[in-house]
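Page 42, continued from yesterday. The earlier attempt failed because a stray header line got pasted into the input along with the sequence. Redoing it now with the clean sequence only.
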Amino acid sequence: MDHDDPLRRRARHAVESGRIPTRHPARSWAGKGSGGSCLLCSRVITPDDVELELEFIDASPTVAPLTCRVHSRCFTAWELECRQLAAGR
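This time it went through. Structure tokens are written below.
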């Protein structure tokens, strides 16, 4: 998956717009898709797909945890973008 892959561009946009953080989630789960929408590609995560649920906890106790659901392939695109941002592009 290269830098110009459409899925990588979507992941980059989600990070840049603040919809998903670049830090590691506090907790994560994987399993069959629940039928919800993927945060990155907006497609349904069907029971035939692997769904990752990522929970990000803010340092402030007054801020509710952020839960993001993504396809496994979308997770990979997000992870690659996070690594590239950390490396300073």
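Notes: The chain has a mean pLDDT of 92.
Reminder to self: strip header lines before submitting.
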